[in-house]
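Sequence in, structure out. Go.
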Amino acid sequence: MKISIVGTGYVGLVTGTCFAEVGIDVHCVDIDKKKVENLNNGIIPIYEPGLEEMVARNVEKKRLFFTTDLASTLPGCQVIFSAVGTPPDEDGSADLKYVIEVAREVGRNMQDYVLIVTKSTVPVGTAEKVRIAVQDELNKRGVNIPFDVASNPEFLKEGAAVDDFLKPDRIVVGVDSDRAEELMKKLYKPFTMNGHPVIFMDIVSAEMTKYAANAMLATKISFMNDIANLCEIVGADVNMVRKGIGSDRRIGKYFIYPGTGYGGSCFPKDVKALIKTARTYNYNLRVLQAVEDVNDDQKSIMFNKLNTYYSHDLKDKTIAVWGLSFKPNTDDMREAPSRVIIAKLLEAGAKVKAYDPVAMEEGERIFNDKIEFAKDQYDALIDADALIIVTEWSEFKFPNFRVMKKLLKKAAIFDGRNIYDAKEMQAEGFDYFGIGIKTFV
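Output:
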């Protein structure tokens, strides 16, 4: 079976590589010549555990190919996945220009039946726009070639994307023809033999499912952050509250950890896009608007605590920052809380010395010489007036506190992920600030 994947970003590269892993002939297409050249040489553009080795293995086995020429991949191709970017416009809506251009290029070059599957996260109604774009190009050519359109949203977690694809909780597929459904069943058979379900539905419902899923997870995060902030005010411990509610199976223990807010390429963009979609239909998603507002405020909470600690005078203070990526096991800094925190520190006149196990190169690209980048986590602490923990990388969870105390000019820790025990930090002699817990000074 031969398929094409258009777009070699996070979703497209993981999707194409994992399909190749089960023996499918996969041709990945991207307009970026340098990226394609790098991929053919085994250099991948993202950090994702296990992906680099899998790409190299399948390129060597001649199951995975990279090219800039979509037309060359169409002969014999049964399924085309559109996994191009859908960046947000200024009003929060998803920009579909790349999605539509892929559809037009397919329409200009297809010779036989093909199933065009939208893999990118797109607003409700996109599949119909894709269908119209393809048909317009076929009409211009004066040919009548059958095709189908489907929606197959991705549910990949950055840092665990390979496992998520190979062992999915569920596979959601929106189709409107028996032929498309049978083709998608065949494609996903290797993944369903172990009991992972494929849920078929209409296309509009599939498009909505992706947005609803991310919006629900974002809602849990913002809800817990709101509760954490109230816990501090009333004297409750959010860690105890989290355990108390997480034991309820109706609520569950996932996505109820307080922190510095969600970031990344999905939640912020998808929440905005869903709010915008609702407004185009004259409906106001009041809960989701609150979710976004809480998250925007939460990204500043550790800076506010630090600023108060130093009586609103951070000029020439050196602040160590542990963690730049929006979550562990990725180098993705899109919408990361670290970007907001560091920007506010710089605006307040502070100096920043940052360290991240994976995202240093991305951090240097974003901040250039505005901040200092440490060699390791302890180097970041030398003569620093405080430490802010932004990302809960595993190597930050069990550090040598005695060494930390010696290196820091002021033994103050602002823990944006509550990875330490507050009483233990007090016993170690630190001024300790978490989220939703008692402060020890």
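Check: The chain has three domains: 2-201, 211-297, 299-433. The two ends are 64 Å apart (CA to CA).
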